[in-house]
Design brief:
By secondary structure, this protein is mostly helical. The chain has one domain. The protein is 76% helix and 0% strand. It is built from twelve helices and no strands. The longest helix has 27 residues. It is globular.
Amino acid sequence: MVTYLEIFILAVVQGITEWLPISSSGHLVITQKALGLNLPLIYSVTLHVGTLIVILTVFRKDIVKIIKALTKADFKTEEGKLALYIAAGSIPIAIFGFTLYDFLKSLFSSLPAVGTALLITGTILFVSEKRKGNKKINTKNTLIIGLAQAFTIIPGISRSGITVATGLLQKIDKTAAFKYSFLLAIPAIIGATIFEAKELTTATIDIAPLLLGATVSMIVGYISLKLLQKIVMNEKFHLFSYYCWTVGTAILIFTLIQ
């Protein structure tokens, strides 16, 4: 049985790492191992709901404009095009998650997988700093970013890190890359929430810890998202690569000496 303190710790970790480019899923695996926990995925999904609310709050104006464009079927405006780009970019992760669900679920108990994935994340973050540009997003860009997002289901591959970095590598304007990355997260998180909701009917779960986790991850997540926005704008994004390399290497060394 998970305690309130344990769910609080997990929620803080989720809130901090969901938006910073260091992989929330990877850190949740590490934290659960450290606490000796093996929670149903519904707990992870609930924590993601808290951070989803953060996106809906921070990007509410953009979301309203996109919804208005959709209701008018107006795909010639910037918002209308963005709606299509989000839809196109969401296809790869839907296919990837649905077809490889059982394999991906097994990775959430694998520290070596997390360590290796963090090394990959760090490398991509580091390389992305070398590419700067002011290009606008187009269909090709969105499909490539969407494909990159598909791999972020793997714990240790940072969703925010990889999607923003992929945009920067294509010389997309940093503001546009940041916005698209997080708007693209909305259908991915909603899809994961719906897909994992079936666990509520197959396991006896106390609702109170879930509500605590969602609330804490929402508050902490809001702070970390605002922090990441400043980091991207100040072109310090690549500095997280050193953290990912350090933690990834430490995990692999730990698993070898165990």
